[in-house]
Amino acid sequence: MNDVAHIEIIEEADQVTVIAGGSLDLTNSQEFHDGLKNASEIAGKVIVDMRTSDFIDTAIVQDIARAGVKMLKRNLRLKVIAREGAYPLRVLRISGFETIMDIEVEPKEL
Amino acid sequence: MSAYAGQNWALARPRWVSYAAAVLIQITLTLFLRWLHPYFPLGDYPAPYATALLITVLVFGEGPAVLGFMLSVFLFWYFFVPPHRGFALPETTAHWAMVAAYVLVTSSVVVAVALLRRGREQSERYAEGLRQAQVEREVTIELLGLVNESKITGDLVRVAAEFYQQQSGCEAVRIRLRDGDNYPYFETRGFPVGFALDENDICAHDDSGNAVYDNTGYPLLGCMCGKVINGWFDPSKPFFTEQGSFWTNSMTELILTTTEAEREGLRGRCSREGYESVALIPLHVGDNRVGLIQLNDRRKDVFTAEKIGLWERLAHYLAVALARLRAEDALRGLDAHKRLFYRQTILAATEGKLAISEKEDIVEMMGSILGEWLVKSVDDVAVVRIATSELAREAGMDEERVYDFMGCVVESTANAAKHANGGRASLHKQYDSLLFIISDSGHGIGALNLPDVALTKGYTTAGTLGMGYKVMIKFADRVYLATGPEGTTVASEMKLHAEDSEKDSALARLMTPALFRRSES
Lengths: 110, 521
Hints:
The structure holds two protein chains of two kinds.
Chain A: E1 5-12, E2 15-24, H1 30-42, E3 45-50, E4 53-56, H2 58-73, E5 78-83, H3 87-95, E6 101-106
Parallel strand pairs in A: 2-3, 2-4, 3-5, 5-6
Antiparallel strand pairs in A: 1-2
Helix pairs in contact in A: 1-2
Chain B: H1 3-11, H2 15-36, H3 47-60, H4 62-80, H5 93-149, H6 153-168, E1 172-177, E2 185-189, H7 193-198, H8 224-230, E3 246-248, H9 251-257, H10 269-272, E4 277-285, E5 288-297, H11 305-349, E6 354-356, H12 359-365, E7 368-375, H13 379-394, H14 399-419, E8 423-429, E9 433-440, H15 450-455, H16 468-475, E10 478-484, E11 487-495, H17 498-520
Parallel strand pairs in B: 6-10
Antiparallel strand pairs in B: 1-2, 1-5, 3-4, 4-5, 7-8, 8-9, 9-11, 10-11
């Protein structure tokens, strides 16, 4: 388990990819919060990549949900990529946000 | 002997002694002046009598001084105004002036000193009034402090009885409070056990032992306690105050000096037990008859009217506080019914996963402690998460379950940090599971909010996502929640291995009715 958060924001043309890796909670996610908020307001395509994330708390889910709503208002959809069976995907599924964002599941490594 | 000491000496004796002393002073002074007159005619001047009258008015007061003044006029006239030894009118202008000077000087001295004495007495009364007001203020603050610290009726009644016992110095105190139609004792201090039991019921009973009611449906309270509680008193009787308290400094004397009709309601039990000083002070808030304070002592003369007056005023504050706490108790009773309903509903809706519990139940479940943390702010959430995840792995928890457990740890800890200014967290090892507990001192979750907080997605009382409890219920094997005005305790139980969790879930679904019964008990 990686108890530290790894956050990276990659901008390519009109696309912003927010990479969230490791373990994220409300104490270490300010960069994620700000990056996703800004991207959801201006970028044409926003991807939240959580394939390397082991843990997120509901503060992160809240950031993703808000970004999803903002994108919807701009007639766009947020894309979230998560690892199959990993905790972040399971938390997102409890929230029931599949309707307002596209969740792409990366299969487990064999 | 100072003037004050002389005053105290005179005040301690019958009033006629002061008058006799005033007369004696004048006669003694006259005899002395007569003896001295051939050698030194001091008696021809008003000064000696003026001095004697000054002492008289200072020590014995105005009445004896006036008597002394009148007597001295005649003595002076008879013995010192020519022609001596008679009441003939003065023959010369000088002799008239002698009498006039005497009357003017001595009367001026008496009036001036009397005014000074009155002024001083008024100052003393004022100072005493201020002192008593200060004492009353301090005593009132002390009682109000006790009232504020008491959260339930039982606590307040106990500290109030102790307070009245200390204030009165009485050996026995008890407090009656309304319970249905009767007013049994809620707190008894210093009374013999049998006495307390005999006197517990104050309702009047018929021959069959049934309580008797008046035509308005109120129970008849058949003793002096009942009369005081109901406000049935005659303020013209010396043993009742205007506020309706009963008090005496000698039960023996009261019984000897009153007829049976006059003291109707006195059962005589206190007197037979040897109590001489007895006071019954009602606890009323308007028409709400809350109860009664009883003070008993075997000594005579324990009370004064001033003390009884003070305790009546304090009893009013106490009655207001008791009425409020009893109303809160009643609300708590209703709240308890609501909580039982929600407890059963939530347990069923979560298939036995969320158990609304009491804090004591959670404390009983604690196994050996693996770690303990003080959570002061949200920054501590990560500290607790990292530490508990390491301890969970060391305990042998399946890796995937560690993350699920962290979800419970983070959500419950963040709730305490965000909504209750932090709390105390601890991790405990049970037979085949770990138990993470966080306790805070926040305002708790109201009974009406419990189902929404626990079950409704997106429900929050704080503007956040409101998913915390849903996450805990989803990922923990069981969540125990104890919440109330004194704070909230959340315990998340997680089996170390998935297979144990599956067995537990199946069992919980089967045992849900049994869990209901356990909750009720």
